[in-house]
Amino acid sequence: MDPREVETEANSDQNQSSNVYHLALDIGGSLVKLVYFTKDDDHIVDGEEGISREKTSVKSKGSRDYPVLNGKLNFKKFETSKINDCLQFIKTMNLHLGGNQQQENTGSQTTAIKATGGGSYKYADLFKERLGISLDKEDEMDCLVAGANFLLEVVHQEAFTYMGDQKQFVKIDQNDLYPYLLVNIGSGVGMIKVEGDGKFERVSGTSIGGGSFWGLGKLLTKCKSFDELLDLSYRGNNRAVDMLVGDIYGGMDYSKIGLSSTAIASSFGRAISENKELKDYNPEDIARSLLRLISNNIGQISYLNALRFGLKRIFFGGFFIRRHPFTMDTLSVAVNFWSKGEAKAMFLRHEGFLGAVGAFMSSDKHGLKELLGNEVVQQTPNKLSFAVDKIQVPIDVELNGDESIECSVYAA
Ligand SMILES: Nc1ncnc2c1ncn2[C@@H]1O[C@H](COP(=O)(O)OP(=O)(O)O)[C@@H](O)[C@H]1O
Ligand SMILES: CC(C)(COP(=O)(O)O)[C@@H](O)C(=O)NCCC(=O)O
């Protein structure tokens, strides 16, 4: 193939950058999440002057027409420890300037980007220094809830259950969505009782979360990346490390209290009775046991909080999950076991991007207003809300976190 025909990733990024509109960030303890909208590359040439403008269409709702922008919602993540890569990406793509290279900062007006998460405080000066932008901070819990509600409302087949290798999409009835428990498993874990749009309370949390899995896993297995740790856990057997009920009860179940001989009596408990050192254990088995320990514990605390408030549905988000079958299965089994089948664990396809999507939705709509105001549509809407049509995501595509989904945005 002629190498000139090959579009490199960098080229394709730069091509895309001319159509960027609107960026929001969630800067967490472990990962930085970016959500940005890109318009479709679909220009109408205006007669002989050759002025091109983005093609918009009109959406009719009831008796009113609304201008519509067609494009993509893009998702990208970076490790927070590699924040420089993230800054470089934003710079290369001109995401902070709406993709417009000409629109360098004049100094008179600082561009503000919506951002949430602890890093929006920690790295505010760095963003100012390196990109000349200020971070317009939004509360992390507000954003998580807004993001979860938005995704559950607009993305087709966003929520699913996972148990015993069976994945089942859940049809969300908008009139029967609330109340629910949102459990966000990031570096730490937050548990939020959600009763409606903007109506929520953070009811619990635990510091034993994704950061604990990754941190302990790194120390114990010497693996170099989170993906490697997940991969190890996939291949391991926790029986080599955990003390089971059967180990204590001479191979028998403790049926009186509902514990089978294969249930874990004590995570990592086998290590105390064996004359072995860390090097004598398989890293795979350690990773597996650790993943079960953390997931079981979160599943149990989640169930207890659901019980506290009589909630039947628990939605799990956060990048700890990474759609890892074993993690989802462990959380589901824990919730199912403790609630005796009363409560259901559910997962979100855009699990790690709840906060970033929430920050994105909170943006003021000036850019969009300008963009739409220049278009063929005469009627400028009074109230701009960033509404998005029901989004279809191909269900057979396994997403690794960086992706884009087709959508159309309209001001309603
Ligand atoms: N590529 C990755 N690098 C580091 N951690 C990852 C990665 N993918 C998933 N994780 C897990 O996700 C957790 C972070 O989840 P996230 O929802 O982004 O939280 P935070 O907002 O605290 O960064 C990490 O602690 C780790 O367990
Ligand atoms: C402090 C945090 C809100 C920060 O969010 P994160 O970056 O972990 O997504 C979270 O780590 C948390 O809720 N930790 C648990 C603290 C506790 O309730 O004990």
Automatic annotation (TrEMBL):
Q: Which protein family is it in?
A: Belongs to the type II pantothenate kinase family.
- Any GO BP annotation: coenzyme A biosynthetic process
Q: In what pathway does it function? A: Cofactor biosynthesis; coenzyme A biosynthesis; CoA from (R)-pantothenate: step 1/5
One GO CC annotation, please?
nucleus
The name this protein goes by in its record: pantothenate kinase
Q: Give the keywords, sorted.
A: ATP-binding, Coenzyme A biosynthesis, Cytoplasm, Kinase, Nucleotide-binding, Transferase
- NCBIfam families cross-referenced by the UniProt entry: panK_eukar
Please verify whether the record's keywords include Cytoplasm.
yes
The main location is cytoplasm
